[in-house]
Amino acid sequence: MNEKIIFSFGFRSKETVAVLPTLNDLAQEYPLRYLLISNPDGELDELDKAKKKYNFIDLQVKALSLDELYDYLHASDVLLIHRESSQKYPAVLSSSVCQLLGSGCPILFHQSNYVELQGNEIVKYSNFEDMKIKLKRIFQGKFDLNIIKSFLKKYEAERVAEKFIKLFKELGETQNQKRRVR
Q: Count of CB atoms within 10 A of residue 140's CB?
């Protein structure tokens, strides 16, 4: 089966209801499964109603271990995160992006202050029409996974550690030079 799998998860799964009409349009062009895993403490009323309306939704309610989460990401075509900008906190960061970028699964995230510091290692969409266009590009293999690989290489733990070691050595040398001058 050549079904396209869009994956979302978490406590805020209620926020995904807004994307469903657009995904329904896309389901007319592609065999589609929207795998949505909601935390047991999440709000499920709207999702239960939506599941009855849209036959492409696969709603599961359970907590995921990191290993299970990565299994789902490896099986999916894209991770979709629809999150509006935080009005309460002007400086935020998506912990999901930071935690899951290493999976290699393309991440499609609504343009918001959660991802304003992210570059092209993730795909951002500005509105639902843009989301549909970018999902099609991902489905057609037009998202270059080498972008993610190069980002991960640049920020791999060993390289970052080497930079800190070099910095600490330089700081130590500077301190030693200051002591000699006195």
A: 9
Residue that is written with structure tokens 């393309």 in the block: 106
Which residues make beta-bridge pairs with 60?
37
**Distance between CA 57 and CA 32 in Å, rounded?**
9
Residues 6+ away with beta carbon under 8 Å from 153: 159
Residues 53 and 110: their CA atoms lie apart, in Å, by 24
CA dihedral 42, 48, 49, 50 (to 10 degrees): 90
Count how many Cα atoms sit within 13 Å of the Cα of residue 159 in the half-sphere of its side chain.
Answer: 7
Q: Say which residues have a Cβ less than 8 Å from residue 96's Cβ, sequence separation at least 6.
A: 10, 79, 81
Q: Which residues pair with 4 in a beta bridge?
A: 32
Beta carbons of 79 and 64 less than 8 angstroms apart: no
Residue 105's φ and ψ, nearest 5 degrees, are -80, 130
> pLDDT tens digits for the chain (182 residues)?
589 999 999 867 778 889 999 999 999 999 999 999 988 877 788 888 888 999 999 999 998 998 999 999 999 999 998 887 778 877 777 777 777 777 889 999 888 877 777 777 888 999 999 999 999 999 998 887 777 777 767 767 787 788 888 888 888 877 777 777 76
